[in-house]
Design brief:
Layout (H helix, E strand, L loop, with lengths): L5 E5 L6 H8 L18 E9 L17 E3 L2 E10 L14 H8 L4 E7 L17 H20 L2 H10 L4 H9 L6 H15 L12 H15 L2 E6 L6 H11 L4 E4 L2 H13 L3 E2 L6 E2 L12 H18 L4 H11 L2 E6 L19 E4 L4 H9 L4 E5 L19 E6 L4
Parallel strand pairs: 1-4, 1-5, 5-6, 6-7, 10-13
Antiparallel strand pairs: 2-4, 3-4, 8-9, 10-11, 12-13
Helix pairs in contact: 1-9, 3-7, 5-6, 6-7
InterPro entries: Beta-grasp_dom_sf, G_OBG, GTP-bd, P-loop_NTPase, YGR210-like_G4
GO molecular function: ATP hydrolysis activity; GTP binding
Pfam families: MMR_HSR1, YGR210-like_G4
Amino acid sequence: MPREPLIAIVGKPSSGKSTTLNSLTDAGAKVGAFPFTTIEPNKATGYLQLPCACSRFGKEDLCKPNYGACKKGTRFVPIMLLDVAGLVPGAHEGRGLGNKFLFDLSTADALIHVVDVSGTTDSNGKATRGYDPLNDIDWLQEEIRQWVQGNLTKNWGSVVRRHTSTKSMAVETLQRQFSGYGANMNMVQLAINQYYKDYQCTNLPPLETWDNEMITKIVKSFLKIKFPTVLALNKIDHPDADKNISKIVLKYPNDKIILSSAITEVFLRKLAKQGYVQYEEGTEFVDTHEDIDTLKVMDEKLSQRVEKIRDLVLYRFGSTGVVQVLQAAVDILDLVPVYPVRNMNTFTGSSGNNVFRDCVMVKRGTQVGAVARSIMGDVTIVAIEGVGGIKISEEDVVDKGKNDILSFKLVSNN
């Protein structure tokens, strides 16, 4: 299978980061094996919810994924999450074990930055009132920038000398320096293009002339490409949240921003497991005994709390936002689901009657041939078929709902 995307959840202590992680990894979909061969202590499996291909063909009852789950046509796709312990100002200098946690980030493909939008915790996560959460967004971006830039500039003299002696192109030299963050040549070129866009330039000055200001610009542009970020504005049910949300949206109009209440999500799922409510994750719909008589009767205190949640979160914002946070992270990575099947007539696998056993997330626009090789490995593919047995070229690309159900015909070993 292709490398799974890795999404890191970051934020200061007490921002609700751990609660967000718990809600994303407790979606009631933990059935079947995990596709990840090793899950390290600081990694967890979250579940992305999306419409499953089975619902297009009325085969919901036959859909039983190898990994994750499918419930009435809603697919729960496992996504690897990286739990980065709370970062504090000065992390790039090692404060609060910052260097370790920043190093952990280097393998991430995207970030979910959980921001305490209530303003009730300071930069170190200690209780306060009236704190401006704009500071958290600014300093976290700056901490990562200073960490990457510090790694780049500590040997800058030798970098420049090698660059000059080998007559390398800037993109080649930068790729070597950024390779520790998983950067390939294409990513570095995108970062350079981002630099042109950010600073309205049409070319790079010679690398040997770069000063600290120029290096800062390049690093900032690289981080936009390397770490696309979702801002999860958490604790939206707090009275001070509204004014802080407005300030953040005004300052970051082009950022992906999701409003969330992770603690509400965790509470509703707990009630659902206990049989007090029927809760449809990612929506405003919560049924109680008054709606479905088979549910347990709540006492007055619990009933009032559910009504308060409905008024302050669900009806007002449409959901707790937690499901949408993970969906947003996948969206900024521009990933779409692809379903490899063995039999294109029945959509089954190598055995049994269950359909759409596998689902992989692939970058939109990836050529079908590249998808085939990433899934099947180094094998000879005779043909690729889509729905209806239509032959698909290796040069065709995948998109949402297009070339996303594929069958690969291999050379026989006989």
